Amino acid sequence: MTAATPEIDLMGEEAIRDPYSAFAPLRSDNPVVWNPQYRSWVITRHRDVSAALRDDRFSSDRIAPFIERKLADPGTDPLIRQAFEVLRHWMVFQDEPSHMRLRSLVRKAFTPRSVQRMQERVAELSTDLLSKISADDEFDLIAEFAYPLPAIVIAEMLGVPPEDRDTFKHWTDEIAPLVSAGLDDPDRYARAAAAMDALIEYFGDLLRRYEAEPADNLISGLIESRDEGDALTQAEVVATCTLLLFGGHETTANLIANSMLALLRHPDQLAALRDGQVDTRLAVEELLRFDGPGKAVVRVMREDTEFGGQLLRKGQRVFLVLAAANHDPEVFDDPDVLRLDRANNTHVAFGFGAHTCLGSALARLEASVAVPILLTGLPGVRLAERPLRWQQVFLTRGLQELWLRADGITP
Ligand code: HEM
């Protein structure tokens, strides 16, 4: 550890409001640094973040010790125990070989074809949600559009009937603290555990339904994977459904909202996208890089490791700050400038290496369909005069609300 370690409060006001400026000094002067307040290493350079994501000494099995402790404690409530059992099966928390086994079985069900097929449906759903916005006054784009859209999309892909959608929103809200920062609040644990219990039972019912009558959806695909050679267990299928549901929802909602915010703050770029002067696919990559929904990912050291001139000890936690890597001037020209036609955009918004986001094609599809529909459908769209409130979390980046005004709706 260096003598004069600069301290950054990862959850401080500045780091929450503008992580790009807040992490810049660390990235240039102390790219691999111990943060005593959070008892973690903080890694900020693009090349280091990419290298760590490919290095299996940086383990993803970061919640196992915590879960084992909870499971070993006889006082742990059975519902909480069950919720942790589900998280234990999430591939994102596993190393090889169990990670790859789960990932390849899920990938079989979650094919590029199954994603591409959703294009028209995403457009239909976007238009439908847009038409329900009451644009006579200010409206919160997150509540009315960005949040429901990905929830409906992933629910439909899984094979969840429309009448159960609202319950899904409730469950994901409740389960969220279990996988984000709020791990120490007993009330939130209990609520998350109850939501997980309901979800497990629900997915159990759906599995039985699609076992009897297979359909063209993700759950049927997972059942097929489960029944082939290196089978998925029932618990793994349920856990994977919850991971897809959770992983695909808030992240994508934040991508849509952060993208709209970035565009509204850069009217020339907004106009270029609206007028078709830039390739939408390039634009989405730049929006992911510029202010993507994933601020950091967590790893834990599997063994003592020399990295970036520091000694990272076995068992120590590491934050790989994707947001800082995505604004690294070593890799991106004018990194703090939004340039929708940026080429060779090697951002790490979806991570990198073995755990690269499995839903990236779906997230890209949703943003590339939804954002242009919003720009065309909301003439004169602008930010309402309200302060922006960011979620007070370190790992992800999203607004609590995004209040807009428009001159009506053009569906
Ligand atoms: C813009 C939206 C999204 C962002 C920014 C995002 C970001 C990420 C990141 C950074 C990781 C790597 C985590 C790590 O290395 O520890 C990841 C993994 C994952 N994501 Fe996403 N994600 C998004 C949308 C989705 C969607 C739509 C789905 C599925 C419906 C999804 C499912 C997953 C899964 C299953 C993993 C685990 C992959 C593995 O461990 O092998 N994500 N995501």
Layout of SSEs?
Layout: H1 13-17, H2 19-29, E1 32-35, E2 40-43, H3 46-53, E3 58-59, H4 64-72, H5 78-88, H6 98-109, H7 112-116, H8 119-132, E4 139-140, H9 141-146, H10 148-158, H11 165-179, H12 186-212, H13 218-227, H14 234-247, H15 250-264, H16 267-274, H17 280-291, E5 296-301, E6 305-307, E7 310-312, E8 317-321, H18 322-325, H19 360-377, E9 382-383, E10 403-405
Parallel strand pairs: 2-8
Antiparallel strand pairs: 1-2, 3-5, 4-10, 5-8, 6-7, 9-10
Helix pairs in contact: 4-5, 5-12, 6-13, 8-10, 8-19, 11-12, 12-14, 15-17, 15-19, 17-19
InterPro entries: Cyt_P450, Cyt_P450_B, Cyt_P450_CS, Cyt_P450_sf
Cofactor: heme
Keywords: Heme, Iron, Metal-binding, Monooxygenase, Oxidoreductase, Plasmid
Number of domains: 2
Helix tally?
A: 19
Describe the biggest sheet? Answer: 5 strands, mixed
End-to-end separation: 57 Å
| CATH architecture group name of the largest domain | Orthogonal Bundle
Ligand list: protoporphyrin IX containing FE
CATH topology of the largest domain: Cytochrome p450
Give the overall silhouette: globular
Q: Determine and state the CATH class of the largest domain.
A: Mainly Alpha
Mean pLDDT: 90
- Alpha-beta content class: alpha+beta
The main sheet orders its strands as 1-2-8-5-3
Helical amount:
40-55%
Number of strands: 10
